[in-house]
Specification:
Rossmann fold, binds adenosine-5'-diphosphate, GMP Synthetase, Chain A, domain 3, single chain, 462 residues, binds magnesium ion, Helicase, Ruva Protein, domain 3
Length: 462
């Protein structure tokens, strides 16, 4: 957390609005309308004021009051430092779109025209850079609608899909667009992992009030990869309260997850139902056309010259997700750069060999699992799907279910269906049985590992 820059705008704004309630309009206008938040360090807030006279008056009359309120709200002693310069609001009647970074108290002029970037968002993650195809159009359109009117329609929104399909790109695009288009909206983007770590740290350092304030004052809260929440009961509890506070205040929330929420195994029901309350949209792997459009766009942006045949080769062979697609392109470019050669079809074929044949879990199907496990026990796949419950069949069947749960993302319901229409509780039971047996039977683990290896090999052949 150490390299985080400090943003106390929420506390400042809240302090100002409390003071406004306590003072007469005239007094407030006279002194507070001429103060502007100009940045912060860990322990200081820098306020821009128009003159030294003004600064001295404010210090004398209001400093104690302001600092006390800031302490109350933030839980830390925040000192005020003043910088004297012409007010930004003197040339711009509308509030600035964002708070410029601190320049210290030397009063150096701050850049005016450029809006800059949000500190936690990547600049490239914009809707402009996102190629829309049939696989992602629902999610992309929902995200754009949210960015136009945060907090009004699709709230909360949950975007789910496998790795490398654009979840982070989309959720950050929302943040970037809101940041550009709206004045004074506090956008908080965080991964579930950082949220969890921050929360734990705040408990350890007895600063949970700071943690709560950071999240509960957000206007737009974007949390990436909520699957990380599984098993983290205290963080779930905290997020539940954050969720309720923001929901009641009509603040926009967007989450991403690597699977539908219904398939998160270790999540409290009340939190699950919160996630499912708004709009849930999915991202599917891109079709050939979309892969092609994405590569074309990246090639154009980078001003590269890559033969059509190579582009098609990549699109035909890297089918899993956009991240792999980008990685293949990056590898080609790096190679061409290093050996100073143009990228030909031969070079591409040779360089991307590993890529094309790298094991891809996504290709693991239940058919393959059933075939491999059945072969191992000299049975047929139909035996595993059939009704017979003799020992020679029941054990391999349970093992196959166990392996399926281990290496795929299929739900117990889906697994049950593929194993002769069995109930999902049967699958859960099978999993438990094998897990228990592995504890007592040391020969079982190597068998399971062997089966998994074989399944993965078989899955990449076709
Ligand atoms: P996820 O968060 O789902 O794992 P990311 O958002 O990190 O995936 O996407 C992986 C990479 O692919 C990123 O560099 C992202 O910009 C790119 N990407 C994903 N989808 C698209 C798309 N539709 N158009 C352009 N680039 C995309
Ligand atoms: Mg991501």
């Amino acid at each position: 957390m150490s390299n985080e820059s400090w943003d106390y705008t929420v506390f400042w704004n809240e302090t100002m609005s409390q003071i406004r309630n306590e003072l007469s309009d005239q007094e407030y206008t006279m002194w507070f309308n001429r103060m502007e938040y100009a940045g912060a360090s860990e322990t200081e807030i820098i306020i821009r004021v128009p003159s030294s006279f003004y600064r001295d008056q404010v210090k004398q009359r209001y400093l104690a009051m302001i600092e006390e309120k800031l302490l109350e709200l933030s839980g830390t002693h925040l000192k005020l430092d003043f910088t004297i310069s012409k007010m930004v609001s003197d040339d711009q009647k509308t509030p600035r779109r964002h708070t410029p970074n601190a320049t210290g108290s030397d009063g150096a002029p701050l850049p005016r025209q450029k809006k800059g970037s949000h500190q936690n968002l990547k600049d490239e993650y914009t809707f402009d850079n996102f190629v829309i195809g049939t696989n992602n159009s629902f999610a992309a359109n929902a995200a754009m609608a949210i960015a136009k009117n945060p907090g009004t329609g699709y709230n909360p929104c949950l975007i789910y899909g496998g790795v490398g399909l654009g979840k982070t790109h989309l959720i950050q695009s929302i943040g970037n667009q809101v940041f550009q288009e709206f004045d004074n909206l506090k956008i908080v983007y965080v991964t579930m992992e950082s949220f969890t770590n921050e929360f734990i740290q705040s408990i350890r350092e007895k600063k949970t009030h700071l943690f709560k304030n950071k999240y509960r004052y957000a206007d737009v809260l974007l949390i990436d990869d909520i699957h990380f929440l599984q098993k983290k009961t205290e963080t779930q509890e905290e997020l539940f309260h954050t969720f309720n506070a923001l929901y009641d205040a009509n603040k926009q929330m967007v989450f991403t997850c690597d699977r539908p929420v219904s398939e998160l195994k270790e999540l409290t029901d009340r939190l699950r139902s919160r996630f499912e309350r708004g709009l849930n949209v999915d991202l599917q792997p891109p079709s050939f056309e979309t892969r092609y459009a994405i590569l074309k766009k990246k090639i154009e942006r980078a001003k590269l010259d890559i033969p059509e045949a190579v582009i098609e080769l990549v699109c035909n062979n890297v089918t899993t997700n956009v991240r792999d697609l980008e990685a293949a392109l990056t590898k080609l470019i790096a190679y061409a750069d290093l050996v100073n050669k143009n990228i030909t079809l031969e070079i591409a074929q040779q360089q991307l060999k590993d890529f094309f044949s790298s094991p891809k879990q996504n290709n693991v199907t239940m058919d393959i699992i059933q075939r491999v496990v059945a072969d191992y026990f000299n049975l047929s796949a139909n035996d595993l799907k059939g009704k017979k419950r003799t020992k020679v069949i029941a054990f391999p069947r349970q093992l196959a279910m166990y392996v399926t749960r281990e290496i795929t993302e299929f739900s117990t319901t889906e697994v049950g269906l593929e194993f002769g229409g069995r109930d999902h509780t049967t699958v859960m039971h099978a999993y438990q049985r094998i897990e228990n047996r592995m504890r007592t039977d040391p020969t079982l683990d190597p068998t399971v590992q062997f089966l998994i290896r074989t399944i993965k090999e078989q899955s990449t052949k076709n």
